[in-house]
Amino acid sequence: MPRTACHEPAAANREMEHLRADALFAPGAVPVHVNRPRHDGDVPLHDHDFLEIAVVLAGRALHRTVHGDEPLSAGDVIVLRPGQWHAYVAAHALELGNCCLGSAVLADELAWTASDPRLCVLTAPGGQGVLRLRLDAAARARVRTLLDAVRAEADAAGAGGRARQIGRAGQILGELAPALPAAARGDDAVGELVHAMARNPEHDWGLVAIARTLRCERATAVRRFRRVAGLPPMAWLTRRRAERAAVWLLTSALPVAEIGTRVGWRDPNHFARRFRGVFGVNPRAYRARGAGTLPAKADWVQW
Length: 303
Description:
The protein has twelve helices and eight strands. By secondary structure, the chain is α+β, with helices and mostly antiparallel strands.
């Protein structure tokens, strides 16, 4: 039987729920998991420490991220890298096919995706944002078949079970590849740097230190970083800090100035300017706009 995890209602202060790989993947099991939830109403704010690919099979909803709400319908695909948060709002008969991939399988059997000119967009370390793709009816049907096959074999015993599940996960990624933009081939040193910056955005990163880490001139470091991450290093760091600050603004009662300090902006005025550059409003206005919009409680089963 598929593993299940019933989630308690969110707390009054709208604390975000963290879904962990060690609760999803059984010890020794293949770190590939598929579920087929159906949602009506609101699904609480949560994030993951694994890669999740959510394929909308039927129904509709609003998808909430740090960047606001976007409508979802059949054929939409949402890709959430580890650490990204989201929620579904006002779902109506929303049927999802969720494929969850643990970091172990991405680092081992599916490590080749990091050098694929399209799939590296999905699996690049420290990547930001929530990717949104669109599948036509034929591709959606093929993905549904693959998801059902992975789910059916989740607890199947016998030789070759791991290979079949990972192989089908690779096929699912292959179905998404045509909808992805082409990207530059991987750069391991930049990938490690992006991962470090994603883990510790509050660190006092700077171009001099980044260039020293990459062992090249600053202009070369900027070009290499942009090829991998899509933005120059300081612009990437600004977005990462702003996204982390947005989560705390919406899910905690921490003072605005303290949130700025936690993400690496110790001057409140500087924090306000940088945050406004990403979201179009200052941190206080962003918090006020989002206050009361996150579900305060829900009765649902994600897995």
